[in-house]
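Quick one: DNA-binding protein from Sedimenticola selenatireducens, structure tokens please.
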Amino acid sequence: MAVKKDARSRGCELLGDLGDHTIAVLRANTELPDDQVKSAARKIVDEMRASWGGQLIYFPKGKDLDIDERDRRMWDDFNGSNHAQLAKKYDLTLQGVYQRLRSIRQVIREEDQPDLFGN
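--- reply ---
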């Protein structure tokens, strides 16, 4: 029984932590009154429980998301000839900058141009 109780307390801790983080984000980014912030946080926690309750969920650290954001900033900073400057700014090798810019260019091209063969 101790194992079930321990798992239950970790689950409650997770939901409480989710609520606390939601409250902190809403307070920092909105001007909602405190009662609305707490109510919204509770609704989010309840929605997560209803949607994902009982499932084993893995939360990734989001490295890919961070890299995507960095690459978009790099693309915005790119002027066509400042590869070395970008390498220094984003702590990448020159070859890494060329590779990232080539990948970004391909993604943008795919977004802008429809596939002629429907693939």
